[in-house]
Amino acid sequence: ILSAVLKVISAAPGVTVQDRGRPRFQRFGLTESGAMDQLALEASSALLGNARDAALIEMFQLGGEFEASGGAIRISLTGAPMRATINERGIAWNASHLLAQGDRLKIGACLQGLYGYLGVGGGIETPCLLGARATHTRAHIGGVEGRALAAGDILPIGTDEKADIGMALPPPYDFNTSSLRVLWGPSAHLFSDHERQLFLDSHFQIDPRMNRMGVRLLAEGAPLHTEAYLSGVSDAIAFGDIQIPGDGHPVILLADRQSTGGYPRIATVVTADLHKVVQIPPGRALRFEVVTKDEAVVALEKQAKYIKGLRDLVTPLVRDPSTIQDLLSFQLVSGFTAGEIPSWEETP
Fold first, then answer.
1. How confident is the model at residue 346, as a pLDDT?
2. What integer is the mean pLDDT of 204-216?
């Protein structure tokens, strides 16, 4: 019996299969990889009723063209909004849709942010390696042969036990981030009070030279400096660590970072803001705000509560008026600006 698959007609560079990643293997030299924007992955699972570890397609700045084969496929579009059509008809983002047998889905450039996500009902079922399907291109494992997707790839899909389509979620966050919350890092003591204050006072620009390994920041003022980089000892690196290499320009390390490093780490982006880091486009001005550990924990707990309640926020993309309790609060007719309507004779 043939089951539905998703054919890749074309794919931009950086389009990969991702999931929640492999968090338990860094001690062996393999960082977790996984979706850069984990909130977008959670939103996709909520829209489709998938398991939270279901794999999906991550797209960096540009998408590609895909076709349903062997049957209909339910899809979701989350993360950075991108231009999307099914058979040349525009479709909504942050929503689920039906891709019927033979339908063509085209996904273009990002309208905001950097990473968009294409989910499928039942999840993508490429081989599971070390507990995940996430593609780690530097390690050449996961996804399809450990590489980015390419024309001609055929992606198997898991059993889809749900049927809902035309569902929507409110955008999970604002893509106009200009500041990030950080904790002082393990090497903060190696920087002088002046250098730490400079780090907080500086406006940084996102360098276009970025990838899943890290984002380089360009300081508008003087670069940061410490002699410690000459004699640093390598140790484990976390997602969100901010390294200061010899040139003084910070680098925020991301999902496909190296597992250890010796450059001093002045700060670490709090976990609750990691989805913001990866969606900041080149050229955006950025500042850092130091918070306490307690504040970082509260932010993470708030985010966990939001994720837990995501499925309750899913609503029909087109709502049935009979189910809207506050129907009278909606503007159902536009064009009138006053309570007194002129007669036809008075209308110019």
1. 37
2. 92
